[in-house]
Amino acid sequence: ITPYRVPIVSVDPRRTFTAAYGETVGGVHLQLVPGTDVVLANAIARIILEKGWEDADFVGNTATRDDIALDQDNWRRLAFGMTFDEFRDFVMGGEVYRLEQAAMLTGVPADRIEKAAELIAQPNDDGTPRTT
Asked: Which of 16, 32, 43, 56 could make a disulfide contact with 106, Cβ separation 3.0–4.6 Å?
């Protein structure tokens, strides 16, 4: 039996067994300052958007204002939900999500944030999305 070796992106303030193992299979450990995970996630999203790596087909079929409006029972979604275009504007407009700023705030080196974005979203050689 050949082990399935997939790069792991581990996000944890502690260096866990999973984080250490992930690095041995080409992954990356993002050892962030506790409480800065949203900044890190949005910084990764910003890199993906800047590089044009987002899965346009998926986004086009899932993120609409109509979907948010139909969910009348979920006040959080009504209050905080946004379309993809709104999210793009939010992330791209936030100085805190720029790579250098995010690295400073999260304590994660910029090159590791970039590597995580590549592992998550850089398309395969045939143009298909890397993750689904």
From this structure: 32
Residue 124 token pair? 């395969």
pLDDT in tens, 23-39: 999 999 999 999 999 99
Interhelix angle 99-106/110-121, nearest 10 degrees: 110
Which helix (H) or strand (E) segment holds residue 117: the answer is: helix 110-121
Measure CA of the first residue to CA of the last residue in the chain; give whole Å: 25
Query: Among candidates 10, 8, 11, which has minimal Cα distance to 36?
Result: 11
What is the token pair recorded at 120?
């998550």
Rounded CA separation 20/12 (Å): 11
| Residues of the chain under the 50 pLDDT cut | 1
Each residue's pLDDT tens digit, 36-56 = 999 999 999 999 999 999 988
